[in-house]
């Protein structure tokens, strides 16, 4: 086993240097993947900007009917054209999203405990790869609990999904879980994102933190920032801007889109930051103008 004492040195993340192994492909860490993998990743990350706007509405798999997501059938038609990727459960896709839409799909495949239980870290793989293929998924999303009670089981879940998905050239999205007793520090996120990437995930979703640019630099695959709790619109746009400025290749907003009074306008404003290099101020001004 590696000598952990050897890690007690000053780290150098070479923030001034771009990732060195991109080749001629626009997705970080994917230059050596096969055509099918690259096709799916291109459905997620824009070939023009290299970035993505994800819309997470998979909350119901453990929270039930969430405020803002009570009627997916009414919400989704007005949002489809304003985002790049849907992060969803298979039930929500089949029942509330028309199959003729032309967006990427990050399919939630891990599931487990509900909000009525104290420990949410005990999850299982609930969707097999064959059903993901039938749904045309561009990535399989697995929750990973590093440092929690369910760490070993969730790493096992991630590994099994990666092994199955790679047989069919489907990327895997590892989602860093943060429980109420878990850290939200750069030290923790550097550990969690690196573990997930080294196990073979092609995309990592995690939260913003201090020294976020170091977290991004140390991760050899693209990081998509998780939006987290509902914030005032101006603050949510500032969060999105800071993440992209820190090197994230995308933003995955859920509550900060579906719990706003104007979800489509908010999604567009986030897209201006992610794809058009708007500042947070410019994006907020765009949002205010759009909702007049």
- In order across it, which strands form the biggest sheet? 1-2-3-6-7-8-9-10
Q: How many beta-strand elements?
A: 10
Mean pLDDT: 92
Indicate the CATH architecture.
Alpha-Beta Barrel
**Which term fits the overall shape?**
globular
As a percent range, the share of helical residues equals 25-40%
The proportion of strand residues reads 5-15%
Count of separate structural domains:
1
CATH class wording: Alpha Beta
- What is the radius of gyration computed over CA atoms, rounded to a whole number of angstroms? 18 Å
What is the fold-level CATH name, i.e. the topology? TIM Barrel
Uncertain runs are none
Instruction: Let me know the CATH homologous superfamily.
Output: Aldolase class I
What series of H and E elements makes up the topology? Answer: HEHHEHEEEHEHEHEHEHEHHH
Q: Figure out the total of helices.
A: 12
Structure description:
The chain has 292 residues and is of the alpha/beta class. It has a single domain (26-290), classed as TIM Barrel. It contains 12 helices and 10 strands. It has an 8-stranded parallel beta barrel with strand order 1-2-3-6-7-8-9-10, surrounded by 6 helices. Strands 4-5 form a two-stranded antiparallel sheet. The radius of gyration is 18 Å and the shape is globular. The chain starts with 34 loop residues before the first helix and ends with a helix. The mean pLDDT is 92.
């Amino acid at each position: 086993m590696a000598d952990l004492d050897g890690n007690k040195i000053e780290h150098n993340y070479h923030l001034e240097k771009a990732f060195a192994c991109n080749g001629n492909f626009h997705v970080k860490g994917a230059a050596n993947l096969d055509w099918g993998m690259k096709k799916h990743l291109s459905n997620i990350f824009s070939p023009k900007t290299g970035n993505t706007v994800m819309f997470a509405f998979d909350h119901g798999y453990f929270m039930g009917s969430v405020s803002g997501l009570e009627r997916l059938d009414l919400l989704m038609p007005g949002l489809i054209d304003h985002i790049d990727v849907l992060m969803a459960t298979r039930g929500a896709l089949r029942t509330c999203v028309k199959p003729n839409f032309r967006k990427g799909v990050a399919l939630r495949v891990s599931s487990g405990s509900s909000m009525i239980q104290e420990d949410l870290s005990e999850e299982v793989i609930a969707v097999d790869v064959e059903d993901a293929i039938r749904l045309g998924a561009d990535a399989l999303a697995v929750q990973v609990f590093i440092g929690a009670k369910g760490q070993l089981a969730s790493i096992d879940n991630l590994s099994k999904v990666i092994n199955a998905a790679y047989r069919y050239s489907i990327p895997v999205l590892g989602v860093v879980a943060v429980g109420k007793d878990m850290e939200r520090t750069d030290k923790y996120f550097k550990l969690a994102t690196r573990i997930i990437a080294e196990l073979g995930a092609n995309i990592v979703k995690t939260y913003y933190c201090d020294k976020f640019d170091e977290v991004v630099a140390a991760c050899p695959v693209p990081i998509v920032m998780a939006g987290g709790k509902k914030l005032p619109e101006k603050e949510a746009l500032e969060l999105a801007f800071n993440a992209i400025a820190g090197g994230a290749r995308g933003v995955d907003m859920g509550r900060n889109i579906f719990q706003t009074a104007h979800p489509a306008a908010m999604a567009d404003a986030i897209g201006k930051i992610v794809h058009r290099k708007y500042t947070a101020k410019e994006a907020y001004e765009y949002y205010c103008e759009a909702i007049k």
